[in-house]
Amino acid sequence: MAVISYDRRATPGRRTSVSHVTPDNFEAARLATQHLIDKGHRQLAFATVAGMTMSRSAKIAGFQAAADAAGLRKAPR
């Protein structure tokens, strides 16, 4: 049986018997946010549940990067 871990990275420097597949959460969030900005949206918010995960942290960073690049640094929440 093949086992693949989705959306969880392997621990750097540690051997694993499980393959890992991880999306680029930073770039996905940046692209989605850029799409909204390109459509004229200027009041942006990132809604999420409590707690921080690696993937959620990357998504928030991508969201903020797109907002910063558009000069909307103070607008995102």
Structural overview:
The chain has 77 residues and is mainly alpha-helical. It has two helices and two strands. It has a single domain (24-77), classed as Response regulator (Rossmann fold), CATH 3.40.50.2300. Helices cover 39% and strands 8% of the residues. A two-stranded parallel sheet has the order 1-2. Helix 1 packs parallel to helix 2. The longest helix is centred in the last third of the chain and has 16 residues, at 54-69. The model has no long low-confidence stretch (mean pLDDT 86).
Entry keywords:
77 residues, mainly alpha, Rossmann fold, two-stranded parallel ribbon, 2 strands, elongated
SS field, number of helical segments: 2
Q: Compute the gyration radius: what is it?
A: 16 Å
Number of self-contained structural domains:
1
Indicate the CATH architecture.
Answer: 3-Layer(aba) Sandwich
Q: Estimate what percentage of residues fall within beta strands.
A: 5-15%
**Relevant CATH superfamily:** Response regulator
- Report, as a whole number of angstroms, the end-to-end distance: 44 Å
CATH topology: Rossmann fold
Shape: elongated
Q: Could you estimate the helical fraction of the residues in percent?
A: 25-40%
For the biggest sheet, the summary is: 2 strands, parallel
Structural class comes to mainly alpha
